[in-house]
Amino acid sequence: MNKIDLSGRCAVVTGGAQGFGRAITERFIASGAKVAIWDHDQTLAEKTAKEIGAGVTAFKVDVSDLAAVEKTRDATLKAFGKIDILVNNAGIAGVNKTVWETDLDEWRKVLRINLDGPFICCKAIVPSMVKQNYGRIVNIASIAGKEGNPNAAHYSASKAGLIALTKSLGKELAGYEIAVNAVTPAAARTAIFDQMTQQHIDFMLSKIPKGRFVLVEELAAMVAWLASEDCAFSTGAVFDISGGRATY
Ligand SMILES: NC(=O)c1ccc[n+]([C@@H]2O[C@H](COP(=O)([O-])OP(=O)(O)OC[C@H]3O[C@@H](n4cnc5c(N)ncnc54)[C@H](O)[C@@H]3O)[C@@H](O)[C@H]2O)c1
How far apart are CA 6 and CA 9, in angstroms? Predict the structure, then answer.
């Protein structure tokens, strides 16, 4: 593992209880940061925080609830004194169906968590980053947001929206020492697979030239660099980690 220096940094990782978020939390801790896991699964978040050990605190919050996020931000600032890094990682896959078979409520649920959630967390945390003139925001989008996966229009649209949010916010904050970037991973074998059909999982694998799923540790390594001081000039950008699938 290459050493990334995050010593003294305080991070919020949404959806940090498992999957990508847990791997990112572990990598941040190994790099010297403190991490607040923001997850709506309180039991799992607390178990994960305990397993990873010193430096991790679990907070229960639904990222799509502005009032709850503001309350959790205040509690995190009280516990850590500052927030230097925000990783908008919490997300869901939604039910795999064609556009015309998808319920409107299901469409709205995916957009609410995957797109409103990052917007709400940025809205709540950016003012304190501006005040301290330092911040690193990493949004976990998806290759689906670039390509549009069939039977996942809600998910693909939410991630395309997150890419556009990244580009807009990056420009708004370019005058500060605040970098805002997105990553677009290919599929990784995490609990999110439980929400998908086997047909959809097979489709995603068939599209990856490297012939395998990305490992959560591989994604965490990219996010750790994007969350570090070294990432000073790249902002409003989208970083590919799709095993060769993306052509742009
Ligand atoms: N695994 C993949 O194949 C893959 C590929 C590309 C992008 N992503 C994205 O990466 C992110 C993490 O995915 P994962 O595979 O680790 O998923 P996961 O299901 O393993 O973990 C997601 C975590 O987010 C939490 N969460 C869900 N909704 C929440 C909410 N409203 N408020 C707070 N917490 C909430 C869950 O409790 C869970 O702990 C997601 O945004 C996902 O879309 C995943």
Answer: 5
Residue with CA nearest ligand 1 atom 14: 19
Looking at the CA of residue 63, tell me the nearest atom of ligand 1: 32
Cα(240) to ligand 1 centroid in Å equals 18
Asked, for residue 4, whether it belongs to a domain, the answer is no
169: how many CB neighbours lie within 10 A of its CB?
A: 23
pLDDT in tens, 40-93: 999 999 999 999 999 999 999 999 999 999 999 999 999 999 999 999 999 999
Q: Report the predicted TM-score, pTM, of the whole model to 2 decimal places.
A: 0.98
Give start and end residues of each alpha helix (H) in the chain: 19-30, 42-52, 66-80, 104-111, 117-132, 143-147, 153-172, 198-206, 216-226
Cα–Cα distance between 127 and 191 in angstroms, integer?
33
Instruction: Give the integer Cα–Cα distance in Å for 60 and 63.
Output: 9
Residue 220 sits in a domain of what CATH number? Answer: 3.40.50.720
Residue 149 in any domain: the answer is: yes
Respond yes or no: is residue 155 known to be catalytic. Answer: yes
Position 95 in a domain = yes
Q: Which residue has the tokens 């990056």?
A: 170
